[in-house]
Design brief:
five-stranded antiparallel β-sheet; 4 helices; alpha+beta; single chain
Length: 216
């Protein structure tokens, strides 16, 4: 009788464990899907802030080109990434480049840099950082408009040696009481422009698309 009771309890416990595991797996899958959707929405919002809909008619999240591993160190990328291409009726108008400034005051600063076809900055947005509230966090557009100062800049405007904060003899403002953070961002935006000039991701994508169209 005792053995039968133990067996019954064991079966009930096993069934309970299976049901619990199934519920947890379902919850995890649902949560993962919601997180992925939220991340996609956030990414799309950031991309559209840099290249608004009136400038392109393609899906920025789908139209991408892989970054060649040789450029990962230049962009501060450890695991690579993709450049999002904006195009207007098949004509590429801008590339949105992911980058990481590793030398922020409190660590990595993740950002995206939009570069127009003519090599000028379309926009810069900070995606993630751990900079000091009230000081270094002014790189975030939610905190100040400092990051808008990159718009329209290029490797020739200002000159390459002027791509630095004013404290270092450059053109860009630093923050009162905080120089390390803006210095890191200025340096990384400059590197993104150098990547664009060297790798020409718009041309890479155009060539591959032309080959695909020819094959079809």
């Amino acid at each position: 009788m005792l053995g039968l009771s133990i067996s019954k309890n064991s079966l009930l416990l096993g069934l309970f464990a299976l049901i619990t595991a199934a519920i947890l797996a379902g919850t995890q899958a649902g949560t993962r899907d919601r997180i992925a959707a939220a991340e996609r929405e956030a990414a799309q919002k950031a991309l559209l802030e840099i290249v608004p809909l009136e400038r392109h008619n393609n899906d920025l999240l789908v139209d991408t080109v892989d970054i060649d591993p040789q450029y990962w160190p230049l962009l501060g990328l450890k695991n690579g990434g993709e450049v999002n291409i904006a195009r207007d009726h098949d004509t590429p108008v801008a590339a949105i480049i992911p980058a990481v400034a590793p030398d922020g005051y409190s660590g990595d600063i993740k950002l995206i840099i939009g570069v127009n076809a003519d090599g000028s900055v379309a926009g810069v947005r900070i995606l993630a950082h751990n900079e000091t509230p009230g000081l270094g966090d002014k790189v975030d557009l939610k905190k100040s408009d400092w990051v808008l100062g990159f718009n329209g800049k290029s490797l020739s405007n200002p000159a390459v040696d002027q791509w630095a904060v004013k404290k270092d003899g450059g053109e860009f403002d630093q923050f009162t009481g905080a120089t390390i953070t803006p210095r890191a961002v200025v340096k990384q935006v400059k590197k993104a422009l150098q990547y664009f000039a060297q790798a020409d991701p718009l041309e890479i994508k155009s060539d591959s698309q032309a080959a695909e169209n020819a094959a079809n």
